[in-house]
Specification:
- Helix content is 41%, strand content 19%.
- The protein is an alpha+beta fold.
- The chain has a single domain, classed as 2-Layer Sandwich (Translation Initiation Factor IF3), CATH 3.30.110.
- The protein has a four-stranded mixed sheet.
- The longest helix has 15 residues.
- The chain is globular.
- The two termini are 14 Å apart.
């Protein structure tokens, strides 16, 4: 899935008022957390995930793993918050052309 810059900007605008739906705990990225993110993407299409770690390299690895495991698109990372998008079969969000 390849998004144009216009579509990414549109999705970032929609994501701005959202609160993080999933927050990683002290156990880090577990199968349960990945399943929860997957369910949230199926339901909402556009979500925020909070990854509270101070190690930049670890945070980057965790975020890349989330994107890979959920087959979603990473829109933006702001601090500890990752914004993800993956269209569901119902296509709730209509992207601009």
């Amino acid at each position: 899935m390849k998004l144009s810059n216009k579509q990414k900007q549109f999705l970032k605008g929609l994501a701005h008022p959202l609160k993080p739906i999933v927050q990683l705990g002290s156990n880090g990225l577990t199968e349960g957390v990945v399943a929860e993110i997957d369910n949230a993407l199926n339901f909402h299409e556009l979500i925020k995930v909070k990854v509270p770690t101070d190690d930049r390299e670890e945070k980057s690895l965790i975020m890349d793993a989330i994107v890979r495991e959920t087959k979603s698109e990473k829109l933006q990372v702001i601090g500890h918050t990752l914004i993800l998008y993956r269209p569901s079969e119902e296509r709730k969000i209509q992207l601009p052309k």
